[in-house]
Amino acid sequence: MTDDDLRRAILARVEALRPGTTCCPSEVARDLAADWRPLMDPIRDQALRLQDQGLLRITQGGVPVTGTDIRGPIRLSPATPKETRDV
What is the pLDDT of residues 4-49, one digit of tens each? Predict the structure, then answer.
C-alpha cells in the first residue's frame, strides 16, 4: 500500500462524513485491511501531511492539534474554510 493509497483512503472517508462529524484513523485502516493495526502509524503520518496541506483537520478532545508530537487518540474531519490554504 502506497502513501498515495493511504491519502486517498483518508480523504474518501473524511469527505463521506456528515457535517459536524469526525472519524478515527482506525476507521480508515479498517476500510483498507483485515489486519489494520500496522496501518495506524502510516495513516497518522499521512493525515499530518494532509493537514499541513490544508486538506484535513486533526483534533484531540475537539481541539485542533498540529505537529508530529501528537500522542493519543485523534479524530479526522474536513478542513474548515479558514484552515484551507493554497498548496
Answer: 999 999 999 999 999 999 999 999 999 999 999 999 999 999 999 9
Domains of the chain from N-terminus onward: 3-78 (1.10.10.10)
**What's this model's pTM, rounded to 2 decimal places?**
0.88
Please state, in angstroms and rounded to a whole number, the distance separating the CA atoms of residues 17 and 41: 22
Distance CA 51, CA 34 (A): 26
Distance, CA of 60 to CA of 83 (rounded, Å): 16
8 Å CB contact between 56 and 14: yes
